Amino acid sequence: MREADIVEVMASSAELPFNALDSSVRRSTHVWTATVDGRACLIFGVVPFSILGGMGIPWLLGTDEIALISRPFIKECKNYVGKMNKAYPSLANAVHAENQLSIRWLKWLGFSIHPAQKIGLNGELFHPFEKRLK
């Protein structure tokens, strides 16, 4: 798992990173994995916020090998966000304030990034983000 993802999981959750990944996969209604030569580069999906529907929590965890698929991933990722938005008209989560690469990527995908708030386990700063289906 990428160092930035490990730091973010540890700052936001009492779970170990691989337990958080397992939990996210099990709770998701949509999950995708990108691989190179049978090795996972990234896993991402969306978890329903509640059984009432309408809002989903998108997530993505990657490995350092994500660089091997960066061009095809960038080309396709807006399509996958569209699939998530079709299932959940409102998408929302929070990104670690130190994860500048992910913040830029989320902005490029059309997510609104809100001011950082202390929502981590140890008072870590996270930016809530959201995207609503238009």
Describe, in short, the structure shown.
The protein is built from 4 helices and 7 strands. By secondary structure, the chain is α+β, with helices and mostly antiparallel strands.
Question: What does this protein look like?
Answer:
The chain is an alpha+beta fold. It has one domain (about 5-130): Gcn5-related N-acetyltransferase (GNAT) (Aminopeptidase), CATH 3.40.630.30. Helix content is about 35%, strand content about 35%. It is built from 4 helices and 7 strands, in the order H-H-E-E-E-H-E-H-E-E-E. Strands 1, 2, 3, 4, 5, 6 and 7 form a 7-stranded mixed β-sheet that branches. Strand 2 and strand 3 (about 55-60) form a beta hairpin. The longest helix has 18 residues, at about 70-85. It is globular and about 40 Å long. The termini are far apart. The model has no long low-confidence stretch (mean pLDDT about 95).
